[in-house]
Amino acid sequence: MAMSLKKIGAIAVGGAMVATALASGVAADVNVVGGDIKDIKDIVVKDGQPNCYVVVGANAPSTMDVVSAADIAAKIGSLCYKEGTVEDGSADLKIHAEANSDDYNILKSGNNIPQNNYTVFVAASDSDYSDDINETLADAGNLTVNMLNLNGLGTDVNKVVSLGDVSTMLKIEDIDPSDWYGSDDDAGELVAVALKNDSTDELTIEKKSAIYMSLAYKDDESNFTNTIPLDRGMRIPFLGQEQAVIDIDADEDTIYLGTPVYDGVLKEGDTYNVGNGYEVKVDSVLKSTKEGEYKVTIDILKDGKVVATKSDTITNTTSMKVIYGDKVGVVVHSAWMDIGEHYGYAELLIARDVKELDLGKEYIPDWKIYAVVKGSNGLTLEKSISNNDNVTGIALRYEGDKLDNLDSGDELDIADYVTFKLDDKDKNDKLYAYFSMDKSVETTLNIGETVSALNADVKLKGIKALAVEPCALTAPIAKLDTEVSLDTADKNLVLVGGPVANKLTKELQDSGKLPVPINNTSGPVIEIVKGAANGYDVVVVAGGDRDKTREAAEYLIKNL
């Protein structure tokens, strides 16, 4: 029998989650006296730990009582957890927005597009960007139009029409929020479509005649001549989401963007939890013999294991980047030591969901991605860049098939983001051109993080939920009735077996403390006796024979 009790202890400490699977074929007629069965949980578990001993008779005539005691102990083990409110974590969010630009009646007198000519329609996240193109056209001529990099427009542009803003397109008011470069410059989105009236009086959109741009401008400026170069760590909108520039790689003709999640200082040895098991660690900061130069080592970890590491030198004019696939990107802008030179610090930006934009390649079907480069002749789209290029933005240009014979109801989806539409709005002799957005953006936020998407700032303030933490059992809870006394008990007791099988049950019955006496004809019974074991509560699980005791045990397991 002692060997059986050791096995009970092993089950109670180790396995406990299987207990409910053992409770099958439970009898319906079980007498519960002395209280409610739901109250028993508070008797057997406290603060996530067992608050009782499960006691079986050392000389029990039936091994079935031993099995019942093991099952009850296992069930109690499954109840050992702590609940609390969630203080950290993440949530997957979907942000949805709808908006339209101004519209323009193409068929109105004076608005008609002459044969073999174009009207260029422009909208932006800020109407200043789109209005400025129209206002400067008279001064700059076709140079301004050509900066849109639409196909072969030349002198065939009849007019440029600003349709104002699409309010859900994104504008970044400060592309350098950490003041790495000491600027308060802006960045915004712009879309343009050149609509042509061909020689047969059909409206068409030709290849390369539609574009999406995300451009960085000098603070409060809106002219193409006032766009500025991008650098690591700067923010830029990209298809409705705020993105951080992780790197502009001239060797690979690739631009890396990521969703910023942290911008600040980490002490040497500290980590930041990016989510999904990823962490960024400032492994070391070493001071060089050269003034203002530090060697920084950054680790990227997944589930506690280093999956990427990089060491590089940081100076007043150089930064470093670490990219791990499409998961995590890091830009280290500066580093320093404390006054006593005991610890190092790194100022850095951390981003997740890294996008690798391969210039000149299709980003989505029919739309190729380019770097917008500012040169002496204005803005050009480049698929190959050098370290000396002033990359002021990112563009997606339509390079699909020509769309012809356009009329009301026709549209062009611009990079799966904004739609250029033609609509007569059920009115004769009218055909309106406008831009429309009906867009959803999905993102993941940790508690406390903010994301800019579709021209709205969304912050995850908290998650209203309960967290459940399983608690390991620290000691066996199964005992023999020769190991526990009613007079010296230091925990509540669950007694398995009637007076014949369990001497502690017999003591209670002989002293008249059992609410319902148990004899050979008794059915399955669960009796709660308050304060009967040195002031602790006792739960008796028994019956007139071993089968009835088993039924009572199964009922307790099912309903506990």
TrEMBL record:
This is S-layer protein. It comes from the Archaea. Pfam families: S_layer_C, S_layer_N. Transmembrane segments: none annotated. It comes from Methanocaldococcus lauensis. Residues 119-466 form the S-layer protein central domain. Residues 36-560 form the S-layer protein outer domain. InterPro entries: S_layer_C (IPR022651), S_layer_central (IPR022650), S_layer_MJ (IPR006454).
